[in-house]
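## Example pair
The file below holds two records. Each record gives the amino-acid sequence first, followed by its structure token line.
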Amino acid sequence: MQQKIRKGIGFLHSMRTGQLDPTIQEVLGREEENGARALLYFRFFFFIFFAAGGSISASDIKDVISNMFFAGAYGIAVFAQWLLIRKKLHRAVHRFNYFLVLADHALFAGLMIFYYVHYSPGNFNHAMKSPYIVLLLIPSLTTLIQFRQSLLLFSLAVCVLTILGFFGYAKLSGAPQTSNWIQYSLGDAVIMPAWLTLWILMPLIVATLVGYAIFRSIRMVAEIGRSEGQKKQLARYFSPAVVEEISSAQGSIESFEKGERRPVAVLFADIWSFTTLSENMPPDRVAAMLSELRQLQMKAVFNNNGMVDKFIGDAIMAVFGAPRSSGSFGGDVANAVRAGLEMHAALAVFNAARKATGETEIRIGIGIHAGEAFAGNLGGEGQLEYTVIGDVVNTASRIEHLCKKAQADFLISETVAGELEASFKHEKIGLVKIRGREKPMGIHRVIHG
């Protein structure tokens, strides 16, 4: 519970200081403008209703003139807002909203004062007990449409000041007072403490409920934005099914964000003689070929619960075991090898299609190493990238570089070979000195197809 309260306070602070994600701020800005348009229609129909009702139901010409005066002044304000929205003056619309809230309060308070002055000048309680006073709550309620808590606070302040103004004038003008609830309810007298308490509490209650609704709405938008952002980031590395699984587990997301050391298997795959190949192809064909090949490679990685870490030119780096493990280190290593085998199988079909159209076949080399690495988000603010770093990554890359020299298209380290079951066929080609490592490393060639 305390953690939720701290999160709520932190979220309020971020709202107050404008530290919400820029994308969320942009969404809220658009919603404020949409809310302004919705309120424009509301105020327009209210203006029509008020003008028509005031002229039809008025008892004399004085009523008609007064109603038309209030309606006309209000109509001018509504027309001004319409012009600002039509000209797309966003900042002006934002500021003008405060004036319109003030206009709403002035209209409703003005009606009560007018009828007091013309029909019951000796008893201000006529205004204080008029049903019109309920209309003073409408401006605070309508701020919910625009997602602006500052607008709500402004409306609340104007409403409370109006109520206090009525109360002060009633006291100074000697309006009838009583302590009898029957006279208060049915007569022309007012229990001042009860009236004041009621009409101070009412705006506060309305503002609290509306404010909480705005807070919940903004927080919901922020949470949805954060969730979608996480899914979008995860979708760069994982298949849709895995994205949903990771996103549904909060613990996985937190480890994804914070980073941790964990055992992984790293796969590198690179096109042989890509420079020579690309020199003899138009740029658009090179791009199309790379795009198609990458799709095949990504599918192989995703099919085996792996993560596409990055593309480096014509090479791909994939990780198995981070941030989501298959359940065991041996399982992650086996998945990496399966992905490599699937890449070669898909490449055979890909090359058959190229050969049928007279295009050059493509060969790739794959290298895999396994061990402990750091996995997490790296980079600066706004430029974070989930990746793994460590010796296991560098070694996997260097094993892949051995492929062409060894005339083998699929090499794995002895660490990887030691984790594989008998169903995987491989043979040791010898001890090889790997740059950056003190001792030679056993390298195995994976037998396939």
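Second record, same layout:
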Amino acid sequence: MNGHNLLNPRRISIAAFSFSFAYLLSFLFEGQVLYGLLEMYGINASAYILAAIIAHFVGLLTCGLFARSREAAKSMMLGGMGLCLVATIPFFFAPSYLWLGGLIISAYFSGCTVAAWGFFLRAFTPKNERFKSCADVLIYSNLLMIAVNVVAMNHSPFIGLSLAMLCLVIGIAFIWMLPVGQENELNKIFENKTHGSIKNPLLLLCLFVFIITINSGLMYQVINPAFEHLTGLVSWYWAVPYIVALAIMRNLPVKAKRSRILYIGMAMIIGAFISFMLLGRNTFDYLIVDTLMLGACGIFDLFWWSILGEMLDYSDNPAQTFGIGLSANVFGVLCGGVLGIAVTSIGLPSAEIAVIALTVVCVTLVMLPPLNNQLVLLLKNHVYLAAYENMSQAQQTDIVSQIKTLDPLTVREQEVLQLILSGKSNREIAGDLLISESTVKTHVRNIFSKYDVGSRAELISILLKYQRVE
């Protein structure tokens, strides 16, 4: 492979995010650098970890307010990671208020960096390849995290901290190399143009992500401490099932149904908590519980990362869409962590904790079929609307004419239908036709009745049967 291919924008983007994310994983959250430092000085980790998660959540949620272009996103990533580097330095010295302040600053700006990467995922990875790009960054960053963890837990947390900062420096170097002037063809089509609203699918995804990741937060606070005596094994094996699950998912056939894989993940979570309840706390028991739990986490993480990647083409601000979607993940971990701290503090037995976790899983299982169906349908609808807008008037009319209705549409209803299929809201349709919004709603209800559908999503799904969008 020549140097040009090694330094193409997609590879640079993946490397930039992988090293930056490795710092986040090894120092702020799942990694053992911060835990090791706090334990060295006899400091309770709960307050620090919760502060970091909250700050990271706010960073993900607010990045889109500042990063509205690829140039701004690159500046945000460079500036944010630079501040993270400075804010980490106090951890080489004795504990002080600078520790908490530095942790909050690092968590906030690392959240902004994660969200801002949405611009580069959209720009440099074709839509049908984003699943693999997301898998790559999660795999590489977790491999780096394992290396830092092993050093921090088995040698010195200060050496681990140095390695985490080295990852950060390398990440900054790759961020600096990210081009801001190149566009792939798909990005040119959708740049600064939203086809319809992605509010509904994004909210559906956030709800699903939030509920299922409550178990992740519960795991960090309940399951992990139960096996902390297995230091050597935990330091390197903890994330291995996660990485293996990502690798398997990455190489599945394109036509594989993700909803079915999600059910496998659900079964693995159920198995993990039942095993935690029934088994002991030795090495073999840890291997079973961790393999099931982290394997499931890998399946779920890649599912919603890739769905978010698909949504980026239908948003005029990828940082906002990516950040909001991933903030649901962090918020779920936060709530699960608080729940874990609560059940641990009152001394609930493992059986009762497992029942709480399984209840969350059961709620998610009930939600999964309708959520997944709606999510897939809405994403397909956006693909259709984008293509419909680029068709000629004759092509649009031809598609509509192929669909049988219970009763013929009036001339006005035909006009409203054309605007619906162009992605217009009721208010926008009212403005275009110079009629009231309530009148538009009446026409829309009549159209739905004549097509025997209950929503715009169902209406457009009928069109999908007549027009295949590549």
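Notes on the second record: The chain has two domains: 10-180+197-386, 392-464. Residues 10-180+197-386 form a domain with the Growth Hormone; Chain: A; fold (CATH 1.20.1250.20).
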